[in-house]
Protein backbone atom coordinates (compact mmCIF):
# COMPACT_ATOMS: atom_id res chain seq x y z
CA UNK A 1 0.00 0.00 0.00
CA UNK A 2 1.43 3.47 -0.95
CA UNK A 3 0.84 6.81 0.70
CA UNK A 4 -0.14 9.85 -1.10
CA UNK A 5 3.49 10.44 -2.22
CA UNK A 6 4.31 6.81 -3.09
CA UNK A 7 7.44 6.85 -0.99
CA UNK A 8 6.92 4.06 1.57
CA UNK A 9 7.82 1.07 -0.62
CA UNK A 10 11.06 2.73 -1.62
CA UNK A 11 12.15 3.31 1.97
CA UNK A 12 11.52 -0.38 2.80
CA UNK A 13 13.78 -1.49 -0.05
CA UNK A 14 16.66 0.68 1.09
CA UNK A 15 16.38 -0.59 4.61
CA UNK A 16 16.63 -4.21 3.50
CA UNK A 17 19.61 -3.44 1.30
CA UNK A 18 21.30 -1.70 4.18
CA UNK A 19 20.83 -4.68 6.42
CA UNK A 20 22.29 -6.99 3.81
CA UNK A 21 25.29 -4.77 3.42
CA UNK A 22 25.83 -4.74 7.15
CA UNK A 23 25.75 -8.56 7.25
CA UNK A 24 28.33 -8.78 4.50
CA UNK A 25 30.58 -6.27 6.18
CA UNK A 26 30.20 -8.06 9.48
CA UNK A 27 31.19 -11.35 7.92
CA UNK A 28 34.19 -9.75 6.30
CA UNK A 29 35.27 -8.20 9.57
CA UNK A 30 35.09 -11.59 11.34
CA UNK A 31 37.07 -13.44 8.68
CA UNK A 32 40.27 -11.39 9.19
CA UNK A 33 42.74 -12.20 6.40
CA UNK A 34 45.63 -11.08 8.53
CA UNK A 35 46.87 -8.75 5.84
CA UNK A 36 48.19 -5.41 6.99
CA UNK A 37 46.24 -2.29 6.00
CA UNK A 38 47.15 -1.30 2.56
CA UNK A 39 48.30 -4.78 1.49
CA UNK A 40 46.49 -7.58 -0.23
CA UNK A 41 46.29 -11.14 0.78
CA UNK A 42 47.00 -13.96 -1.61
CA UNK A 43 44.02 -15.88 -2.99
CA UNK A 44 44.95 -18.83 -0.80
CA UNK A 45 45.20 -16.62 2.24
CA UNK A 46 41.88 -15.07 1.39
CA UNK A 47 40.27 -18.46 0.98
CA UNK A 48 41.58 -19.76 4.34
CA UNK A 49 41.81 -16.46 6.13
CA UNK A 50 39.96 -17.75 9.23
CA UNK A 51 42.54 -20.44 10.14
CA UNK A 52 45.60 -18.43 9.17
CA UNK A 53 44.92 -15.88 11.88
CA UNK A 54 44.81 -18.43 14.76
CA UNK A 55 47.96 -19.02 16.84
CA UNK A 56 49.70 -22.40 16.42
CA UNK A 57 48.29 -25.11 18.71
CA UNK A 58 50.04 -25.99 21.99
CA UNK A 59 50.87 -29.55 23.13
CA UNK A 60 48.10 -32.02 23.82
CA UNK A 61 48.08 -32.43 27.62
CA UNK A 62 46.39 -35.44 29.26
CA UNK A 63 46.10 -36.93 32.77
CA UNK A 64 46.25 -40.72 33.20
CA UNK A 65 44.69 -42.42 35.09
CA UNK A 66 41.98 -39.98 36.08
CA UNK A 67 39.05 -41.90 37.59
CA UNK A 68 38.66 -44.74 40.11
CA UNK A 69 42.42 -44.63 40.63
CA UNK A 70 44.17 -46.99 43.03
CA UNK A 71 45.91 -44.62 45.46
CA UNK A 72 49.22 -46.42 45.06
CA UNK A 73 49.18 -46.16 41.26
CA UNK A 74 51.28 -43.27 39.92
CA UNK A 75 49.35 -40.52 38.13
CA UNK A 76 50.94 -39.19 34.93
CA UNK A 77 50.51 -35.84 33.23
CA UNK A 78 51.63 -36.16 29.57
CA UNK A 79 52.48 -33.39 27.11
CA UNK A 80 52.19 -34.82 23.60
CA UNK A 81 54.23 -32.65 21.25
CA UNK A 82 55.86 -30.51 23.92
CA UNK A 83 57.26 -30.32 27.41
CA UNK A 84 55.76 -29.79 30.86
CA UNK A 85 56.56 -26.41 32.40
CA UNK A 86 54.52 -26.69 35.61
CA UNK A 87 52.17 -29.11 37.35
CA UNK A 88 50.28 -28.40 40.57
CA UNK A 89 48.32 -31.33 41.99
CA UNK A 90 46.49 -30.71 45.26
CA UNK A 91 44.23 -32.69 47.58
CA UNK A 92 40.82 -31.42 48.74
CA UNK A 93 42.54 -29.51 51.57
CA UNK A 94 44.83 -27.72 49.16
CA UNK A 95 47.97 -29.63 50.13
CA UNK A 96 50.36 -30.27 47.27
CA UNK A 97 51.10 -33.76 45.95
CA UNK A 98 54.76 -34.30 45.12
CA UNK A 99 55.88 -35.37 41.68
CA UNK A 100 58.77 -35.38 39.29
CA UNK A 101 59.20 -34.51 35.61
CA UNK A 102 60.94 -36.86 33.19
CA UNK A 103 64.29 -35.75 31.70
CA UNK A 104 62.68 -35.00 28.33
CA UNK A 105 60.00 -32.93 30.03
CA UNK A 106 57.20 -34.90 28.40
CA UNK A 107 55.75 -36.50 31.55
CA UNK A 108 55.16 -35.52 35.18
CA UNK A 109 54.56 -38.40 37.63
CA UNK A 110 53.39 -38.46 41.25
CA UNK A 111 55.96 -39.69 43.75
CA UNK A 112 53.72 -40.28 46.78
CA UNK A 113 50.62 -42.39 47.40
CA UNK A 114 47.21 -40.75 47.35
CA UNK A 115 44.31 -41.28 49.74
CA UNK A 116 41.24 -43.44 49.25
CA UNK A 117 38.01 -41.78 48.08
CA UNK A 118 39.43 -38.32 47.27
CA UNK A 119 39.25 -35.94 44.32
CA UNK A 120 42.47 -34.12 43.44
CA UNK A 121 42.85 -31.00 41.30
CA UNK A 122 45.49 -30.98 38.57
CA UNK A 123 46.64 -27.72 36.94
CA UNK A 124 49.26 -28.19 34.23
CA UNK A 125 51.12 -26.00 31.74
CA UNK A 126 53.13 -27.13 28.73
CA UNK A 127 54.71 -25.60 25.60
CA UNK A 128 55.80 -26.80 22.17
CA UNK A 129 59.39 -26.36 21.01
CA UNK A 130 58.15 -23.25 19.19
CA UNK A 131 56.73 -21.85 22.42
CA UNK A 132 53.02 -22.46 21.82
CA UNK A 133 51.39 -22.98 25.26
CA UNK A 134 48.68 -25.22 26.67
CA UNK A 135 46.98 -24.76 30.03
CA UNK A 136 44.97 -27.64 31.52
CA UNK A 137 42.83 -27.88 34.62
CA UNK A 138 41.51 -31.36 35.44
CA UNK A 139 40.73 -33.73 38.31
CA UNK A 140 41.84 -37.16 39.52
CA UNK A 141 39.53 -39.27 41.71
CA UNK A 142 40.66 -42.29 43.72
CA UNK A 143 38.65 -45.42 44.45
CA UNK A 144 36.53 -45.64 47.59
CA UNK A 145 36.78 -49.13 49.17
CA UNK A 146 33.82 -50.89 50.70
CA UNK A 147 36.08 -51.39 53.73
CA UNK A 148 39.75 -51.12 54.65
CA UNK A 149 41.58 -53.87 56.54
CA UNK A 150 44.40 -53.21 58.96
CA UNK A 151 46.97 -55.86 59.87
CA UNK A 152 48.86 -56.62 63.09
CA UNK A 153 52.28 -58.32 62.96
CA UNK A 154 53.85 -60.65 65.50
CA UNK A 155 56.69 -60.54 66.38
CA UNK A 156 57.64 -56.90 66.32
CA UNK A 157 61.16 -55.59 66.09
CA UNK A 158 62.79 -57.71 68.79
CA UNK A 159 65.04 -60.71 69.44
CA UNK A 160 63.40 -64.14 69.28
CA UNK A 161 64.19 -67.83 69.25
CA UNK A 162 64.70 -70.07 66.25
CA UNK A 163 61.13 -71.42 66.27
CA UNK A 164 59.36 -68.06 65.96
CA UNK A 165 56.92 -67.82 63.03
CA UNK A 166 55.63 -64.53 61.62
CA UNK A 167 51.90 -63.97 62.07
CA UNK A 168 49.91 -61.33 60.18
CA UNK A 169 46.40 -60.93 61.57
CA UNK A 170 43.85 -58.92 59.55
CA UNK A 171 40.98 -56.93 61.03
CA UNK A 172 38.46 -58.70 58.74
CA UNK A 173 38.26 -62.04 56.96
CA UNK A 174 40.31 -61.94 53.76
CA UNK A 175 38.53 -62.98 50.56
CA UNK A 176 41.49 -62.92 48.16
CA UNK A 177 44.16 -64.71 50.15
CA UNK A 178 46.58 -64.94 47.22
CA UNK A 179 46.50 -61.17 46.78
CA UNK A 180 47.22 -60.73 50.48
CA UNK A 181 50.26 -63.00 50.51
CA UNK A 182 51.58 -61.50 47.27
CA UNK A 183 51.71 -58.19 49.12
CA UNK A 184 53.76 -59.72 51.98
CA UNK A 185 57.47 -60.11 51.26
CA UNK A 186 59.84 -61.82 53.71
CA UNK A 187 63.60 -61.66 53.41
CA UNK A 188 66.09 -63.35 55.70
CA UNK A 189 69.82 -62.92 56.08
CA UNK A 190 71.26 -65.49 55.69
CA UNK A 191 68.58 -66.61 53.20
CA UNK A 192 66.32 -69.54 54.08
CA UNK A 193 63.36 -71.02 52.21
CA UNK A 194 60.01 -70.24 53.81
CA UNK A 195 56.31 -70.04 52.99
CA UNK A 196 52.99 -68.56 54.10
CA UNK A 197 50.15 -70.68 55.46
CA UNK A 198 46.64 -69.49 56.32
CA UNK A 199 45.77 -70.46 59.89
CA UNK A 200 42.29 -68.91 59.61
CA UNK A 201 40.40 -66.48 57.39
CA UNK A 202 42.06 -63.60 59.26
CA UNK A 203 45.52 -64.96 60.14
CA UNK A 204 48.37 -66.00 57.86
CA UNK A 205 51.69 -67.28 59.27
CA UNK A 206 55.15 -67.54 57.74
CA UNK A 207 57.80 -70.03 58.83
CA UNK A 208 61.00 -71.38 57.33
CA UNK A 209 61.34 -74.99 56.22
CA UNK A 210 63.43 -75.72 59.32
CA UNK A 211 64.16 -73.61 62.38
CA UNK A 212 65.75 -70.22 61.70
CA UNK A 213 69.52 -70.24 61.73
CA UNK A 214 70.96 -68.52 64.82
CA UNK A 215 71.95 -64.95 64.05
CA UNK A 216 69.42 -64.53 61.24
CA UNK A 217 67.79 -61.16 60.57
CA UNK A 218 64.25 -61.42 59.22
CA UNK A 219 62.33 -58.56 57.59
CA UNK A 220 58.66 -58.43 56.67
CA UNK A 221 57.77 -55.78 54.11
CA UNK A 222 54.01 -55.77 53.62
CA UNK A 223 52.76 -53.55 50.78
CA UNK A 224 49.16 -53.79 51.93
CA UNK A 225 48.06 -50.21 51.30
CA UNK A 226 46.15 -50.25 48.03
CA UNK A 227 46.14 -54.06 47.88
CA UNK A 228 42.79 -55.46 46.70
CA UNK A 229 41.94 -58.10 49.31
CA UNK A 230 38.69 -59.10 47.60
CA UNK A 231 35.05 -58.40 48.31
CA UNK A 232 35.55 -54.65 48.05
CA UNK A 233 38.16 -54.61 50.83
CA UNK A 234 41.56 -52.95 50.47
CA UNK A 235 44.56 -52.78 52.76
CA UNK A 236 44.52 -49.83 55.17
CA UNK A 237 48.29 -49.36 55.48
CA UNK A 238 51.64 -51.02 54.87
CA UNK A 239 53.38 -53.05 57.58
CA UNK A 240 57.11 -53.38 58.16
CA UNK A 241 58.99 -55.26 60.87
CA UNK A 242 62.50 -56.62 61.33
CA UNK A 243 63.43 -59.11 64.05
CA UNK A 244 66.62 -60.93 64.93
CA UNK A 245 67.12 -64.57 65.87
CA UNK A 246 69.38 -65.32 68.82
CA UNK A 247 71.06 -68.60 69.80
CA UNK A 248 69.16 -71.85 69.20
CA UNK A 249 67.66 -72.79 72.56
CA UNK A 250 65.77 -76.09 72.24
CA UNK A 251 64.36 -78.13 75.12
CA UNK A 252 63.43 -81.78 74.52
CA UNK A 253 60.88 -82.99 77.07
CA UNK A 254 60.46 -86.79 77.08
CA UNK A 255 57.40 -88.12 78.89
CA UNK A 256 58.87 -91.61 78.88
CA UNK A 257 62.07 -90.79 80.73
CA UNK A 258 60.56 -87.83 82.65
CA UNK A 259 63.64 -85.85 81.65
CA UNK A 260 64.11 -82.63 79.68
CA UNK A 261 67.36 -82.07 77.85
CA UNK A 262 68.44 -78.49 77.10
CA UNK A 263 70.42 -77.72 73.94
CA UNK A 264 72.20 -74.47 73.13
CA UNK A 265 73.08 -74.29 69.42
CA UNK A 266 72.94 -78.06 69.27
CA UNK A 267 75.10 -78.72 72.33
CA UNK A 268 73.57 -80.43 75.38
CA UNK A 269 74.06 -78.05 78.32
CA UNK A 270 71.63 -79.29 80.98
CA UNK A 271 69.21 -82.10 81.91
CA UNK A 272 66.21 -81.55 84.17
CA UNK A 273 63.71 -83.82 85.88
CA UNK A 274 60.14 -83.07 84.75
CA UNK A 275 56.56 -84.12 85.22
CA UNK A 276 54.24 -83.82 82.21
CA UNK A 277 50.45 -84.09 82.01
CA UNK A 278 48.71 -86.97 83.73
CA UNK A 279 46.79 -89.56 81.67
CA UNK A 280 43.64 -87.48 82.26
CA UNK A 281 45.33 -84.28 81.06
CA UNK A 282 48.17 -85.36 78.75
CA UNK A 283 50.54 -82.77 77.32
CA UNK A 284 50.32 -82.26 73.57
CA UNK A 285 53.11 -83.93 71.66
CA UNK A 286 55.06 -82.03 69.05
CA UNK A 287 56.99 -78.81 68.68
CA UNK A 288 55.89 -76.02 71.00
CA UNK A 289 57.16 -72.45 70.70
CA UNK A 290 57.24 -70.13 73.68
CA UNK A 291 54.82 -67.24 73.03
CA UNK A 292 55.00 -65.43 76.39
CA UNK A 293 56.80 -65.45 79.74
CA UNK A 294 55.63 -64.01 83.05
CA UNK A 295 57.08 -64.09 86.59
CA UNK A 296 53.70 -65.29 87.86
CA UNK A 297 50.35 -66.38 86.46
CA UNK A 298 47.05 -67.18 88.18
CA UNK A 299 46.07 -70.60 86.83
CA UNK A 300 42.40 -71.52 87.02
CA UNK A 301 41.10 -74.94 85.97
CA UNK A 302 37.76 -73.33 85.16
CA UNK A 303 39.37 -72.02 81.96
CA UNK A 304 39.27 -75.56 80.57
CA UNK A 305 36.04 -76.73 82.21
CA UNK A 306 36.93 -78.02 85.70
CA UNK A 307 34.74 -75.78 87.84
CA UNK A 308 34.73 -74.95 91.55
CA UNK A 309 33.40 -77.89 93.57
CA UNK A 310 34.38 -80.45 90.96
CA UNK A 311 37.20 -82.98 91.49
CA UNK A 312 40.52 -81.57 90.30
CA UNK A 313 39.49 -77.92 90.52
CA UNK A 314 42.27 -75.45 91.30
CA UNK A 315 43.01 -71.74 91.21
CA UNK A 316 46.56 -70.94 92.16
CA UNK A 317 49.32 -68.40 91.56
CA UNK A 318 52.16 -70.18 89.77
CA UNK A 319 55.68 -68.78 89.37
CA UNK A 320 58.19 -68.57 86.52
CA UNK A 321 55.76 -69.26 83.70
CA UNK A 322 56.53 -69.66 79.98
CA UNK A 323 53.52 -70.34 77.77
CA UNK A 324 53.98 -73.09 75.17
CA UNK A 325 50.38 -73.30 73.90
CA UNK A 326 47.12 -71.41 74.18
CA UNK A 327 45.56 -74.59 75.55
CA UNK A 328 46.91 -73.74 78.99
CA UNK A 329 50.28 -75.47 78.72
CA UNK A 330 53.29 -73.80 80.38
CA UNK A 331 56.76 -74.64 81.55
CA UNK A 332 56.77 -73.45 85.17
CA UNK A 333 57.90 -74.01 88.73
CA UNK A 334 55.94 -76.73 90.55
CA UNK A 335 57.26 -77.21 94.09
CA UNK A 336 54.23 -79.39 94.88
CA UNK A 337 55.29 -82.08 92.37
CA UNK A 338 59.04 -82.23 93.02
CA UNK A 339 58.66 -85.76 94.41
CA UNK A 340 57.05 -86.96 91.17
CA UNK A 341 59.41 -85.11 88.81
CA UNK A 342 61.60 -87.65 87.07
CA UNK A 343 59.21 -90.53 87.78
CA UNK A 344 55.50 -89.72 87.18
CA UNK A 345 53.42 -87.46 84.94
CA UNK A 346 50.98 -85.73 87.27
CA UNK A 347 50.40 -82.22 85.88
CA UNK A 348 47.36 -80.79 84.10
CA UNK A 349 49.34 -80.63 80.84
CA UNK A 350 52.18 -78.35 81.84
CA UNK A 351 55.89 -79.14 82.10
CA UNK A 352 56.53 -79.14 85.85
CA UNK A 353 60.01 -78.20 87.10
CA UNK A 354 61.62 -77.79 90.49
CA UNK A 355 61.89 -74.12 91.55
CA UNK A 356 65.67 -74.13 90.89
CA UNK A 357 65.34 -75.66 87.43
CA UNK A 358 62.40 -73.37 86.63
CA UNK A 359 64.51 -70.34 87.51
CA UNK A 360 67.34 -71.54 85.26
CA UNK A 361 64.87 -72.20 82.42
CA UNK A 362 63.22 -68.80 82.90
CA UNK A 363 66.62 -67.08 82.78
CA UNK A 364 67.68 -68.78 79.52
CA UNK A 365 64.49 -69.34 77.48
CA UNK A 366 62.14 -66.77 76.01
CA UNK A 367 59.77 -65.97 73.16
CA UNK A 368 60.47 -68.01 70.06
CA UNK A 369 62.52 -70.67 71.81
CA UNK A 370 61.44 -74.27 71.35
CA UNK A 371 60.12 -77.04 73.59
CA UNK A 372 59.74 -80.38 71.80
CA UNK A 373 57.47 -82.85 73.64
CA UNK A 374 57.58 -86.59 72.99
CA UNK A 375 56.07 -89.70 74.60
CA UNK A 376 53.46 -87.74 76.55
CA UNK A 377 50.47 -89.85 75.49
CA UNK A 378 48.73 -86.66 74.35
CA UNK A 379 47.37 -85.61 70.97
CA UNK A 380 49.42 -83.59 68.52
CA UNK A 381 49.53 -79.87 69.11
CA UNK A 382 47.03 -78.29 66.66
CA UNK A 383 48.51 -76.00 64.02
CA UNK A 384 46.11 -73.23 65.03
CA UNK A 385 47.26 -73.33 68.68
CA UNK A 386 49.79 -70.53 68.90
CA UNK A 387 52.42 -71.45 67.87
CA UNK A 388 51.50 -74.86 66.45
CA UNK A 389 52.96 -74.03 63.04
CA UNK A 390 55.59 -76.76 63.28
CA UNK A 391 52.93 -79.48 63.60
CA UNK A 392 52.69 -79.62 59.80
CA UNK A 393 55.23 -81.16 57.49
CA UNK A 394 56.90 -78.80 55.02
CA UNK A 395 54.74 -80.15 52.19
CA UNK A 396 51.57 -79.63 54.25
CA UNK A 397 52.68 -76.14 55.22
CA UNK A 398 53.32 -75.17 51.60
CA UNK A 399 49.81 -76.29 50.68
CA UNK A 400 48.77 -72.96 52.12
CA UNK A 401 45.53 -73.36 54.08
CA UNK A 402 44.63 -75.36 57.16
Keywords:
four-stranded antiparallel sheet, 3 domains, mainly beta, Immunoglobulin-like, L,D-transpeptidase catalytic domain-like, 402 residues, disordered N terminus, single chain
What does this protein structure show overall?
The protein is mainly beta. It folds into 3 domains: 60-141, Immunoglobulin-like (Sandwich), CATH 2.60.40.3780; 147-246, Immunoglobulin-like, CATH 2.60.40; 249-394, Beta Barrel (L,D-transpeptidase catalytic domain-like). The chain is 13% helix and 36% strand. The chain has 6 helices and 27 strands. A 5-stranded mixed β-sheet has the order 21-20-19-27-22, with no helix packed on it. Strands 1-2-5-4 form a 4-stranded antiparallel β-sheet, with no helix packed on it.
Secondary structure: elements and pairs:
Layout: H1 8-31, H2 43-47, H3 49-52, E1 60-64, E2 76-80, E3 83-90, E4 99-101, E5 107-110, E6 119-127, E7 133-141, E8 147-149, E9 151-154, E10 159-160, E11 166-170, H4 177-182, E12 184-189, E13 194-198, E14 203-208, E15 217-222, E16 228-230, E17 233-235, E18 239-245, E19 249-254, E20 259-264, E21 267-273, E22 286-289, E23 292-300, E24 315-323, E25 330-333, E26 351-353, H5 355-364, E27 370-374, H6 394-398
Parallel strand pairs: 8-17, 10-18, 19-27, 25-26
Antiparallel strand pairs: 1-2, 2-5, 3-6, 4-5, 6-7, 9-11, 11-14, 12-15, 13-14, 15-18, 16-17, 19-20, 20-21, 22-27, 23-24, 24-25
Structural class: mainly beta
CATH superfamily of the largest domain: L,D-transpeptidase catalytic domain-like
Please report which band the strand proportion falls in: under 5%, 5-15%, 15-25%, 25-35%, 35-45% or over 45%: 35-45%
* Secondary structure tally: strands: 27
Q: How many angstroms does the end-to-end distance come to?
A: 105 Å
Unreliable stretches: 1-49
CATH architecture of the largest domain: Beta Barrel
Text of the CATH class of the largest domain? Mainly Beta
Describe the sheet with the most strands.
5 strands, mixed
Helical coverage, percent range: 10-25%
User: Kindly state the mean pLDDT as a whole number?
Assistant: 88
Strand order in space, largest sheet: 21-20-19-27-22
The total domain count is 3
CATH topology descriptor of the largest domain: L,D-transpeptidase catalytic domain-like
What gyration radius follows from the Cα positions, in whole Å?
Answer: 39 Å
Shape: elongated
The helix count comes to: 6
